[in-house]
Amino acid sequence: MKSAYRLPDPGHILPERAVVIRRHGFADHYRLLFISIVLGLVSIGTVVVVWPGLYADYRIRQNPVEVPEASLASSECKTKNISVNCKAGIAYPRDGQTQIRSVEFSFISLDRGDFETTVVAERGHPDNITLSLAIDELWNRFLGSLAIVVLLGWTAILMARRFIHVSAAVKAFRQPAVLQPVWARITLRGKGKGWGWGGGRNRITYFPVTGLRKGMAIPTLFTKAETPWMHYDPAQNETFALAALHPGAILPIMLDEAFDRLELTDDEVRQARAARDGLAARIGD
């Protein structure tokens, strides 16, 4: 598969024999699973917590009746960016006693002024009571919550999919195989922060220039004993690295300066480094 970059063929860099991958370097393996679960739970939680209230307000909207004898024990709407969050305590008479119901809802609005509202209830069901503002913004609230559910749910699925890809690759790496050298484009460089999750180590995100769809950039961590190999080409304004693709994996590993991530002989390392340096000199030609 061809790419849009002017890169020489790296196919001859690695030996034509089965090679053991000592260290894959993939970052965030189990973090992907953790984040996927958290986002999935938040998405489901939004449905469980928010949508029953939306349905109750939908019923009011279908058959509303004002409750003039009701009053607001407390009420406020706070605006943050384009989101408005409203809370109110509604006091209303019920069977000779005063009942108080708390309502809370959010919607998207560019309005920074005050909101006028009355108390409304579902005809025949006086305990299903809320503010007219909540009814007026019902579809706004539903679409906003739907966007959150879809966005978080889809992100959770993508995270889970990447976790499966990484897990499958790690499993495949246990078996020696003839590896295919491929070029990768460096998209992000930095240091892992804090303790755990690779804190203090070189964190590099790379993207194979062929073979993967957009959005599948791969983060990797280099230990203090490893030196990442990268080559900047001013003509293309891109930084490139070499990666190795296992036939049983969809994700290639990024190679280091000394090829320590692979189990090679000293002669094979010397030949690989010489071939790589020769390719680097030809990049952009």
Structure description:
By secondary structure, the chain is α+β, with helices and mostly antiparallel strands. The chain folds into two domains: 39-147, no CATH class; 173-282, no CATH class. It has four helices and twelve strands; from the N terminus they run αββββββααββββββα. The strands form three sheets. Strands 7, 8, 9, 10, 11 and 12 form a six-stranded antiparallel β-sheet that branches. A three-stranded antiparallel β-sheet has the order 1-5-6. It has a three-stranded antiparallel β-sheet with strand order 2-3-4. Helix 1 packs antiparallel against helix 3. The longest helix has 35 residues, at 138-172. It is elongated, with a radius of gyration of 29 Å. Residues 194-199 have low confidence and may be disordered.
Radius of gyration based on Cα positions: 29 Å
Our estimate of the beta-strand percent is: 25-35%
- Principal-axis shape equals elongated
Helix content: 25-40%
How many β strands by DSSP?
Answer: 12
The number of helical elements comes to 4
Secondary-structure element order, N to C:
HEEEEEEHHEEEEEEH
- Quaternary form: single chain
Uncertain stretches of 5 or more adjacent residues: 194-199
Q: Biggest sheet, open or closed, and with what strands and sense?
A: 6 strands, antiparallel
The pLDDT mean sits at: 90
Number of domains: 2
Termini gap: 19 Å
Kindly name the structural category.
Answer: alpha+beta
Protein name: DUF3592 domain-containing protein
Keywords: Membrane, Transmembrane, Transmembrane helix
Transmembrane segments: 32-54, 142-164
